[in-house]
Each structure stands twice: as C-alpha cells, then as structure tokens.
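Quick question, first post here. What does this chain look like in 3D?
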Amino acid sequence: MNNSRRDFLKFSALGIGASTLPPLPIFAGPFTESKNRHLIPEDKKLSATWIKSLYERGKPEVLKDDELKYVGMPVGGIACGQLYLGGDGRLWLWHIFRIQYHRNPDSQLLTKMEQGGHYAYPDNVFKREDRSVEQGVAIRVKQGGKEVIKKLNNEGFKDISFRGEYPICKIDYKSDDLPVDVRLEAFSPFIPGELEKSSNPCTTFNYKIKNSSSRPIEVSLASWLENAVNPFETDNELGKRTVQLVSKKNRKTILFASESSGKSGLPKLEDQHGYGSLSWSLYNPSEKSQHALNIGYLDQVKDIFETIENSDREVSKKSSLNQKMLSAILETVTLEPGEEKEVTFVLGWYFPYLNQKDWGEVLKIEGIDDLKLHYFNRFKSANDVASYICDNFEELADGTRLWNQTWYDSSLPYWLLDRTFITLNCIASNTLVRFSNGRFWGWEGVECCPGTCTHVWQYAQALAHFFPEVERNFREVTDLSELGLNHNGALRHRAENNEEVAHDGHCGTIMRIYREHRMSSDDSFLRRHYPNIKKMVQFIIKEDRNRDGLLEGKQTNTLDAAWFGPMGWISSLYLGALLAGKEMAIEMVDTPFAKECDQLLKLGRKNIVKQLYNGEYFIHKPDKNYPKAINSNDGCHIDQVLGQSFAHNIGIIERVIPEKETVSALKSIWKYNFAPDAFDYQLKHKEIKGPRIYATQGEAATIMCTWPKGGDDKAVPGMDQRPDNPTVWSGPGIYFDEAMNGFEYQVASHMIWEGLVEKGLATARAVHDRYTAKKRNPFNEIECSDHYSRSMASYGVYLAACGLEYHGPKGYLAFDPKLQKENFKAAFTTANGWGSFEQERKSSGQINKITMLYGKMKLSTLLLGINENSVNAIVSVNGKKISFKAQTYNEKLNIGFEEKIFHKSDELVVEIKY
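> Answer (accepted):
Ran it through. Tokens below.
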C-alpha cells in the first residue's frame, strides 16, 4: 500500500480525519466485493432519493454548529489579496499584507505526504495563517432597565446560521435573551462586467438589526480592529504604528499606518513585509456614534462599551511596534417594535507593494522594480479606499445584491447554483494577481505553480463569462504578445516562466481566443490579433507532421510529462483548435486558411474514430520508439473527448468528434471511472499508487484514468526506466488514480451537453458532496493548492444546464434548457450586461422571456429549444410586436430581427404555438 494512504488510514484510526465525522447519508450501494479486475462497479446503485435531489430545486444550504468550523469564504475584491470570513462572522486567513512568491511549508504541499494534504487533512488550513488580526463586533441591547452584551461570534451566540452565496455571506445570530434579530451581510462589491467596481481592497459588513419585541429598545454595536500595519515587525527602533480618526459627512474612519524612525543604519519600515495602511470605517454615522483610539486589549466583553465611552478620543495616536493595540467605533440606534435598521462597517486595506526579489525570480520582465498591485494606481492609502466605498456604497451594494438576487432567482437546484459559482471565488484569493502595469497573472492555485499556466487555466469557464475583460487581458498581454508567443507561433505554456509548449494548453488557448472574441461586443479583439492567432493555428498544424488530423509526436501536457503517439485527449483538442481557427478565419474572410483548417478537421474527424476508437471509448496508442514514456494505452481517460467538451462550452455548433462515438465515450467514463467510493478504488488498485488524496473513505468521484481492459501495468514505467526529467516534481503516473475537480466538471458539463443529463449532474454533485462543510471548507476547492483555478470549469455545468450560447459581435444568444424545461428560469451574462431568461412550456406551446437587469446587450438573433419543428411565433419588445424571420431545425427555433440594443428593464418575449 502507498505510504501516504497507509498513514492516512493510521491517522484516521486514531481519530484524525474523516473517521471523526458523523456518517453522511448513504447515497450508493450496498456493494459486494467485486470479482471483476476493474474494481469500479458498473451498476452504481445510486439511491433514488439522491438521484431525485439532483433535479429538485431544494432549499438553500444553511450551515450551523459543527458545520461552521471550516468555513472560510474569500471576501475581498478581485486580485486584492486573500481574506476569509468564517462561519461565525470573524475574519481570518489575513493574506492581504503582501502578495508574494514564497514557499512556506505550512502553505505549500512540498512532501509526498503533504501533497493533497489540505484536502485529506482539512485542519492543516488553520496553520496557514502566519499572523492573525484581532477584529470583532459586539452588540449591547438596553430595554426596560436591563442590559445584555454579547460578541457577534460563536463566543457570544450559540445559535448562528451561515448561508454562503458568493460573493455574499449571510449570517443570522439568535439568542433567547436578546429581543432582536441580527443578520450580517458581508461582501466586497461584486458586479459582473464591472471590473473596477469589483476590484476593491475592502470588505463591507452590513448588520441588519430588527426589534422583535413589543417595546422600544436601544441597540449599540461596538466594532474594533487591531493596528496590523507592518504586522511582522516588532523592533521598536524602526519606528511606530500610527492611528488617527478621519471624520467625513458619510463616514467615520479609523486609519492605521506606520512611520519609520529615520535612524541611520536601520532598515526602513517601507521595505518591511506588510507596509501600507488599514482603515476601519462606520458608514453614515449617527450623532450617537463614538470612537476610541489605542484602547489596548480587552479581556471581558463587558469592558468594550465602557472602554469606548470613557476613553480619550484624540484624533491621532502612536504606539510601539511590539505593542498590539485596538481601536474601535461604537454606533447606537433606537428601534421601535418591529423596526429594522442597518449599521455598516467597512474594512479597507492598502498593501500594494511586492517583494521585488521573489517576484523577480518569477517575472522575467523589465521594470520589475517598479511593479506593484493594481490598486496602487487607484488609491494612495486605505483612507482613499474607505472614501471610494462610502461615497459609492449604495451603487456598489445595490449592484452586488441585484446580481445575487438574479443568480438565485432561478429554477435550477440550489446545490448546482452554489457549486457552479463558488469556484469563481479564486479570483478573490491569492491565485489571481493584477499588476500596476495592467497585466493579469495567475498561479495554478494559491501561490502554487506560476505563469497563468495554459494547460490548467484552459479548463476555467467562469471568469470569461463574468469578467471577460480579464480573460482578454490574459490573451492580449501574455499569450498573444512576445511574453507568451514565439516567432513561430508556439505558445509558451507559462509565459516567461517556462518556454516549453504544452500541446494541450496551446490547442485549448486557441479555443479560448475564439471564446474571448465571442464574449466581446464587437470584432476589434479578433481583428487586432488575427495574425498572431493564425500563427498559433499554423504551428499546431505543423506539429501534425503527416497531416492526418491527429497529433503523434511529443505532446507535453497538464499531467506534467511528455506523451507520445496519437490519443483521443490531445488530438480532440487539436481538432477543436482547427475548428476554432476555421471559425475565426471565416469571420476574418480568410477563405484559404478556413479551407485548410476544414480539410484537416474533416480528415481528423474520421481518423480519430478509425484509429483510436475501440468500440466503447477513445484510447492512446503509445509510440513504440519511446518505450519509457508515460502512457494510458487502452485506459479509459477522463479527458479523451476534451476538444468536443470545450467546443460546446464556447458555443461552436459544428462537431469536433462524431456524436455517436462521443456519447459512447462519455458513457464509458461513467461506467468505468465514476467510483461510488473513489478512495476504496485507490487503495485496491495495485499498479499505480500516487500520494495525493482528493477523495476520502466513502466519497464518490470520477477517477482520472482506469483500465477496464487491462494495460495499467504498462502505463507507468518503473523508476529506473523513466525518461530524463519526465516531470517537474511528482513522477509521472501519480495522477491516474486521482480525482481532480476541474477534470470532473468538464466531463460533467459535456455529459449534459450531449443529453446524458443525469450522469452529468451526478458527476458534478459528487464534487459538491465531497466539499460538504461537515468535512472541509466548501468554499475552497483544492488540487495542487488552495482555490485551484481549474475548478472554474464548474461554470461549464451551468452553461450546459441552460444550453446557453452567446456571440457578442454577431448579436447572437441561445437557450436550450436541459432540465426543468416546463418551468425554467436562470441568469445569463453577455459582453456588457446581464439579465434573466425564463421559459414556460406546455403541450400547446411555450413562452420565453429575456429581461435585461444590468448594462446593455446587442441582439439580432435568438435561438431557442422547442418541442416541435413546426411552430408559429410572435415576438415583442417591451410589449410591442416586432417583425422577424424564423427558421426551425432539429427542435430549435432560430429568430432573426433588426439589431436592437437592450438596456436595463427591457424585455423580449417570444410566444410559440406548436
């Protein structure tokens, strides 16, 4: 048995890990010991109750009691550092002070035992916080001569309910001895399509307090924050921390900073870790609001209010660097019976300075010494952050809440809405960085594997649909510039970090470029970069040396090794790149090149079936000239039809691979790779043992590659036979027995696109169930590190469920729901706005309605799924009928009309009679 798995079982037996948890409801089985060599049961024996729950709307998942332990939702702005809100409302994991490239053993999975450790051992995450910051809020209620004081966390309240709807955390506090209902809504402004408004180094805390009694009450909220500027410095010789009060009409702000001593021979505080400023603001203070600066540390909650009310209220103070000090704001409101009021606090931070030495090792570019985080260009201190947020609070909060309401005002299951959006929160973690020179840049996961790696980020679907400007920036500033593209059209898979081409990432990026064009409002992006795009397609065509539509040579890929010989996986991506190249060439009226791509595509479409389809699924034929190379040979690989999956998600209608064989391959992945107990499979599989654990006992998952027909003994060469430098850190083949979320999401979305709805939903739901709050943080999907970018593939599941396609330059929008067709409602996003789509279907016809809720959308073509091919339709905009042309085919209705610009509240209604 693999050592790490043996150790995991040993620790579990000692009460560490999954065995300490209450048993989850049985969703599959029971199973008897299989005599089949394959080990994974063909009949999954999924419970009828669990299958039913895949489709049901259900109820919002509210966490309580022990489920709050691991909760940590990122609550900062896009690329502004990482900060968690815990299940009881406290802030933790303060990774905002300086985003840098470092390898802290507590935050990186360096040893074989630790690889995957953040998943298998969720308590390890609590070791990642090098420096916590004291912060909190307490409530005081006065009524009828009585006074009750409690901290708004699990020390003061035993009845706390947490509902996480990224980007908004909703926490309810209840206590029998308090005549008030308290709800916290915490978020950083987040409005799809509004990048700047969603990229603020801040978190807002909105406490809604309602008098639930029959008598008037006085309620006070005391909110405090530690001066944590230069948080890791304690040498008083270097200088002091400062605090001052800034009073404005709409805010009262406590501003924390530091100043150097100026003594010669000493390092400057400006050069230390965490130099910058913090601000803690009360938005719209009342006349009763009070403050206290440098109030020290409080042992008893009852002391908080007395200390604030009796303290010296000077407007500025200083403290030594070795002294931990708090400052606080007190707000008091009076509530009549049944009345509700809101008290809002705003945390702002300003730590834009980078560790130049460490980042210089990662970014091999000129001007590294001048590089900072993006918000350096917008703000000059945390006071500026507070000013911007408070001056624009209503607009920012209303937009955030409107999006939250739009997303969840849906007929889709709550679990699906939660899981397909949660993964986007990696853009509010340290996975995503935005520099002051305008460049976006990404790790694979939090501070793990640099360079916005093409073969990892290609799986991500969410970011392109919510902030398309960011993905276009990836393409323009890196991939299609000299940073990413060689003169011959070869794409460096980690830009300046690694010049080697990853063939899967190269092909996937060509498809992403076409997606970025479609998620634009016009064709300027495509026109501007078409010469380099064409070079990229021409490069991968040259790699097809015998011009048969398949790739046979060295193919470096996301499994960290070079594979040789044709395979369904990378050749399907190659065909997808040809199809995307053809589409872009057609739009650029480059007819000769479009024909060249089309000819190869047609040839490859035939050859991939003829050479690689074994009657059930697509295989890999290893090159005999490279006997030491890793391979999957006759194995059933999760990504074997990846090119077709990506094509669906970016809205290409033409097939990459023939439908019959594609559906058969997907059914095989379900049959052979979906394991009701993935950990059990990993334990029993003898040929391949990897150290990483992404599924523990009893957890379902889709295994990366299995060998139902044998061949696993040939897949991974022995250690003494491996080629030189086959992989960077882990040894090839360790991934085969793993279950990794991003891969699972892509195959789940593909299943739904191809009509295997139940299998697709079950595949995605298995990931959701693994991230139950009973076991680990549901807001942190883990692969090589935390908040792994590949998990943003989950949004493909949403696209497939809605049958959602979009082409901004053409003004094209399509919906063809794959579930709940009779009564469907879901949100959609476009290049410049977003809204809601509704469908009501009966035997006599259907009514579809599109409502714009934010921004604008150009539209001239609408495609809808229908029940029959012979229909009559009426189209109206804001209640007025418009003329149109219609065409039906394959149970779809294509409606064309004169181009219109839809703005907020505009409605388009299509009434269809069968």
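The chain has three domains: 135-398, 439-800, 803-913.
The radius of gyration is 28 Å.
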